[in-house]
Backbone:
């Protein structure tokens, strides 16, 4: 398990690539057939889930062992929370579960978005 803190600028497309998952020989593990789930909550063990990402939508799992996540600006511009905690659950094809990454999440409000000279219509592609 590795602690990685994430900082999301509100109103910006956020993408992050975690370090590759390595085997005991320090070779990248092909995780393309694994499943993944990342949840952000206000506090660990809290019942209120602020955001959830899965390998079905905004998590990519690579043959090179790299896990990539995306939080489109169309989603994060509406966040009414500023911080939380996350963990990333990885399940291999034989149902072995691991949590390779955990950490804090900070949502940083943009300054320019409220300017009268700035177009507040972000026109983000959020799939709908």
Residues:
């Amino acid at each position: 398990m590795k602690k990685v803190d994430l900082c999301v600028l509100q109103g910006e497309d956020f993408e992050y690539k975690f370090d590759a998952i390595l085997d005991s020989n320090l070779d990248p593990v092909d995780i393309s057939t694994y499943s993944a789930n990342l949840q952000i909550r206000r506090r660990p063990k809290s019942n209120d889930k602020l955001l959830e990402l899965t390998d079905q939508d905004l998590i990519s799992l690579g043959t090179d062992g790299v896990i990539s996540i995306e939080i489109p600006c169309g989603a994060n511009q509406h966040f009414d929370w500023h911080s939380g905690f996350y963990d990333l659950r990885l399940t291999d094809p034989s149902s072995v579960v691991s949590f390779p990454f955990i950490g804090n999440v900070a949502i940083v409000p943009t300054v320019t978005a409220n300017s009268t000279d700035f177009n507040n219509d972000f026109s983000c592609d959020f799939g709908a």
User: Anything to note?
Assistant: The helical segments are 73-76. The chain is about 5% helix and 40% strand.
